Amino acid sequence: MRVLNADLTPGLRHPSVEPIREEMVRLQRSTVPVLALYRPDDRQNPLVFPEICTPETLLKALEDL
Predict the structure, then answer these.
(1) Quick check: 64 and 58 in contact, CB under 8 A?
(2) What are residue 43's phi and psi, to 5 degrees?
(3) pLDDT tens, 24-43?
(4) Kind and range of the H or E element at 31?
């Protein structure tokens, strides 16, 4: 398992954050943080968590992998 962290500090218009912005659009998210679990067997369709994610929600998702 890998944990990825994307930094939007330069702002959404800066070229360095373009891949992050594109993924946010693809995931239909417009605010940060975006919490998504990219499964090894299906990296194109991550499990996107609600804005408020409980430990139980996360643990259940990890158990279902």
Answers:
(1) no
(2) -70, -15
(3) 899 999 888 888 988 888 88
(4) none
Side chain identity at residue 3, one-letter code: V
- The candidate with the shortest Cα–Cα distance to 25, out of 54, 17, 40, 37, is 17
φ, ψ of residue 60 in degrees (nearest 5)? -60, -45
Q: What is the pTM of this model?
A: 0.71
At 18, the amino acid letter reads: E
User: Which tokens in the block code for residue 16?
Assistant: 């360095």
Token pair of 20 as six digits: 């992050």
pLDDT band at 60 (very low <50, low <70, confident <90, very high): very high
| Bond prior to 33 in cis (omega within 30° of 0) | yes
Instruction: Name the one residue in this structure whose structure tokens are 């998702």.
Output: 61
